Amino acid sequence: MSRSLFSGRRLCITTKHGKESVIGPVLEQSLGVECIVPESFDTDQLGTFSGEIERKGTPIETVREKCLRAMKETGCDLAVASEGSFGSHPTLFFVPADEEFLLLVDAKNDFEIIARHLTTETNFAGEKVTSWEALKVFADKAKFPDNALIVKNAEKDWKFLQKGIQNEAELRQAFEECKNLHSSVFVETDMRAMLNPMRMNAIAKATEELVRKIESECPNCEMPGFDVVEHQAGLPCSNCSMPTKSTLQDIYRCAHCHFEKIEKFPRGKDQEDPMYCDFCNP
Ligand SMILES: [Zn+2]
Ligand SMILES: [Zn+2]
């Protein structure tokens, strides 16, 4: 069903940072679509990572806006857009994380499917540096020059801004120039996909997740995107049988016909170790 919904249609990938190279082939092969990239579409209008254009709205609002604009511009009724978000991991404190969102909007059949991939495999970082030696240490940690860097005069100031630095001579020159002009230097990783192979990898993973969701069909209406909407806690403790915080069952719900399915013991076990029980191990 999924394949026949999409087969032979044009799908517009809204990107200007080379992401189509990882997203396109996977979608073409699994959905039978023909991917196109709009030529004039500048996604930077919706915000840049280096901060000189602020992103308004959540990542999901941003990807939706990208899809809608691209569909309007190209006349496609099928679009995919991606958006990354970087910062501290939501549960592992002080560990940098890359959260990638990929949204597919199908205007013809009136639905959207969102995929998310969260990873700590990222070089996302930035710091003020006072010497070339300190900058070199930062660059090594950031896996430069395979991953590009940005030099600016301060974290939230863009009087000096050099993006996409990919070799040491250029880095040295930017450092000296910025230091001479502003007597302070801030270096950060360039998170644009084509300049950051670690991020490109995360986008590839998000694409796999999107395909997995698309291929999951509702058993009732056969529309794609049938997926878990809620994890319900309460897996019983193997010692005292009281409910624990661990997942007892997953709830699947169809966004189209609202059909629901309950999957008991989705983690493959029907009891929890007393170690995770609030009664046995408070
Ligand atoms: Zn359904
Ligand atoms: Zn217990």
Descriptive keywords:
282 residues; alpha+beta; Rossmann fold; Dna Ligase, domain 1; 3 domains; five-stranded mixed β-sheet; 6 helices; binds zinc ion
Description:
Helix 2 runs parallel beside helix 6. The chain is of the alpha+beta class. Helices cover 27% and strands 29% of the residues. Strand 1 (10-14), helix 2 and strand 2 (34-36) form a beta-alpha-beta unit. The radius of gyration is 23 Å and the shape is flat. The chain has three domains: 2-118 and 194-215, 3-Layer(aba) Sandwich (Rossmann fold); 126-190, Dna Ligase, domain 1 (2-Layer Sandwich), CATH 3.30.1490; 227-276, no CATH class. A five-stranded mixed sheet has the order 2-1-3-4-5, with helices on both faces. The model has no long low-confidence stretch (mean pLDDT 91). The structure holds zinc ion (2 copies). Residues 218, 220-221, 223, 254, 256-257, 259 line the site of one zinc ion (ZN).
Mind describing the biggest β-sheet?
5 strands, mixed
Order of helices and strands: HEHEHEEEEHEEHEHEEE
- Helical proportion? 25-40%
Low-confidence stretches: none
Kindly report the spatial arrangement of strands forming the biggest sheet.
2-1-3-4-5
Radius of gyration: 23 Å
Topology:
Blueprint: H1 2-6, E1 10-14, H2 20-31, E2 34-36, H3 59-74, E3 78-88, E4 96-106, E5 111-119, E6 126-129, H4 132-141, E7 149-154, E8 157-165, H5 168-182, E9 185-189, H6 197-215, E10 227-233, E11 247-253, E12 260-264
Parallel strand pairs: 1-2, 1-3
Antiparallel strand pairs: 3-4, 4-5, 6-9, 7-8, 7-9, 10-11, 11-12
